[in-house]
Write a structure and sequence with these properties.
With 93 residues, the chain is mainly α. Helices cover 94% and strands 0% of the residues.
Length: 93
């Protein structure tokens, strides 16, 4: 049976949540003071990571669009240049 992309995402999500919960359980058992500090800092880090990921995705899309426009310009220049060269070679004969 081949796993599809949504199945892999669900599996990764379950793995990450389980790791998070077990990690916090172990941290509370070892040092509850440090765990409380982590509990207050982790949501801020998660929000910052989400904002950064969203902005990086938007900038990546804009960059890809700009590369697409540049690619089409280069293609047009190369095609027109090769046609002009062919015409010039035929005219010289």
């Amino acid at each position: 049976m081949q796993l599809t992309y949504p199945n892999l995402r669900a599996g990764n999500f379950a793995h990450n949540i389980t790791t998070f919960v077990v990690g916090y359980a172990i941290a509370f058992a070892r040092s509850w003071q440090l765990s409380l500090v982590m509990l207050s800092v982790v949501p801020a880090l998660a929000i910052a990571g989400t904002v950064f990921g969203t902005l990086a995705g938007k900038l990546s899309t804009k960059a890809a669009d700009a590369y697409g426009v540049a690619n089409s310009v280069v293609q047009q220049v190369l095609v027109r240049g090769s046609v002009a060269m062919s015409v010039r070679l035929l005219a010289c004969r």
